[in-house]
Amino acid sequence: MFRPRAQIRPRTYPPLLFHPLGGCGEIGMNLSLYGYDGHWIAVDCGMTIRQDLPDQPLQIPDVDHLAAHAMVPSAVFITHGHEDHLGALAWIWPRWNCPVYATPLAIEMLRAKFSEQGLRVDALKPIQPGARVAAGPFGVTFLPVTHSIPESCALSIITPRHKVLHTGDWKLDERPLIGAPFSAAQFQALAPVDLVVADSTNADVEGHSRSEAEAAEALESVIRECRGRVVVSCFASNIARIKALGAIAERTNRRVALLGRSMERMVSIATQLGYLDDFPPRVPANDLGYLYAEEVLIIATGSQGEPRSALSRLSQGRHPALDLLADDDVIFSARAIPGNERPIARLKAGFKRLGVNVHDEHTDPALHASGHPAREELRQLYRWLRPKMLLPVHGEASHQQAHRELASTMDIHVPQLAKNGVVLSLDAETLVPSGTHHLRPRLIASRMRPGERTNPVSARRHDKSLSIALNVLPTATGWTRIGQMIWDSEISLPLDEDALADWLDERIDAITAETLLQLRQQLFGPLREWLHERLPVSLEIHLQLMPADPQPEYEVRTAP
Ligand SMILES: [Zn+2]
Ligand SMILES: [Zn+2]
C-alpha cells in the first residue's frame, strides 16, 4: 500500500483583497478594486453629482493613495453605461493608463468622454456579453443581466482560489424590451460562489421590480388619454423606454421630437449600435410649432429639475421652439433621485401654472420601473448562486443593513458592511478588514463635466481664450520641455507662471508618448483641468507643442 513519505501540506494561497473607493454607504460614484497576489483590477469608475453643494460639482473617487501602495489596477472592467459606473473614468484613467473592458454601448459613451478630454481611445476594448478576459491571475467573465440600460453585465471574478460574483446593477426583468430576459442558467452554473458583491439599492423594498414592458404599457395608456401635446421626460440612458416611446408615437399617430443634448447623443449612439432601427423619423424641434398639438410627442431630458434643461425652459414658458399650453401633458417617466426633490417640485409647479397636466410616479405609479432588484429578486439570485458570503455594496448604510438582514434569513454570512477606503481580505472562510485608507472628496467644477461641453450654456462661444506654446524635446522615454513657455491671453489672468511651468515639467516628463500628437492628447485634458481649477473664468484653451529639433509637428518620432 502506498504511503506518502512526507506529509503533504495544503498549499497556501494569498487572500483576495477587496478595496471599495466609492459606492459603499452612498449611491453613486462606484469604484471597487480587487487584488490578488500583487495584481489589481478595478471594477467601474463612476461619478456622483453633489446636489448639496453650490454649482453642483462632480465628485470622483480619490485614487491618490493607490500608486504609493502598489495598488494601481492593470485593467478596468465597466459593468454598464450609467454615469455612477463610468462617469469618472476619463478623469482617473490617465493615472492608470491600462486597458478598459466594457460592452459596446459603454465603450461608445467612454469614447466620447475620452475624446473630449483629449485622451487616446485605443485602451477602450469592447467586449461582447458572455466574453471572458484574463488580467494577471484574474479571469473575468461578463454575464449579461437586465437593468435600465442595455448591455449591463455582472462580472464573475475568478482567481486560482476564489469565485466571486460582482453583480453590478441588475433587476430580474423577463420582458426587458431590449436584449434577452434575465437568464438563470449562467448563475446556476457558477454555484456555489465564495462571495457575492451585491447591489443593495432596493434591498429595503419588498416584492419585485416592475418590468420595462409594464412601464411602457402604463406610458401608452396615459398617452392615449392625452389630447394636446405630450412631453415625456426620462433618462437619456433608458434606451428601452425611448424605443418604446417611438412605437407608442406611431400607434397613437404622433410625431416624435427629442429635446436635450444628452438625449440626442444617447439616441445617436443607440442608433449606431442598432437598438433603434425601427424608431420613427424625428421632427426637428424647430418644426414642432407647425404640427397640430395632438400630433406631438416630445421626449426630453431634465426629469431631475436640471435648471438649464429643455424641460425647465418649457416649464417657464421660455423655450425658443415651443410653448406648452393648458391641456398639454407632461409625463415624468423617471423616479426623482433623492436630493433633487426641490428642483423637481419647482419644475412641476411651473407646468401647473401653465395649466399643463403633470403625470408622475405619484399620479401613476406604473410609469416607473426601477432598475434595481427588490427583495424577491435578491432571494431568487442567491438561491441560484448559493453564495457562502455576501458583501452588500451600491447603497446607503440603511440599504446595506437591510441587505444583510435579508441574507441572514437565507443563511448567507455577511461578515462585514463595507465602507469606502477599507481593504477587506477574503480567505477560504471569512472576510476581515486588513487596512483602511483615508479618502478625500475630489470635486470637479460642473462646467467641466466630460461629455457635456456641447450643452447650450457651455457651447456658447468662449469670448476669452488662453494660448500656451511650449518647446519640447524627445528623450529616451518620452519628452521633456525646454526653453521659454509662451502664454498669451486677451484678459489679464491670475496665473502663477512658475506653478504652471513646474506642473507642465512634471507632467510632460511622466508621459511616455511616442509622438507629439500623443503627447498633446495626453497633456491637453489634464492641462485644461489644472487651469480650470485655478482660474476664475472659463477659457478656451489652445495648446501648441513645438518640437525643439527640426521635425514637423505631429510627425512620428523615430527611434534614435
Ligand atoms: Zn448604479
Ligand atoms: Zn445602473
UniProtKB/TrEMBL annotation:
Span-the-membrane segments of this chain are none
Occurrences of domain Plant heme peroxidase family profile (ranges): 220-372
Enzyme class name = hydrolase
Molecular function via GO: hydrolase activity
Query: EC annotation?
Result: 3.1.-.-
CDD domains tied to this protein? RNaseJ_MBL-fold (cd07714)
Q: Which InterPro entries match?
A: Haem_peroxidase, Metallo-B-lactamas, RibonucZ/Hydroxyglut_hydro, RMMBL, RNase_J_2, RNase_J_b_CASP
Record key words, sorted: Exonuclease, Hydrolase, Metal-binding, Nuclease, RNA-binding, Zinc
* Any one Pfam family match given in the protein's UniProt record, by short name: RMMBL
**PANTHER family listed in its UniProt record:** RIBONUCLEASE J (PTHR43694)
Q: What is this protein called?
A: Ribonuclease J
Q: Which organism is it from?
A: Salinicola lusitanus
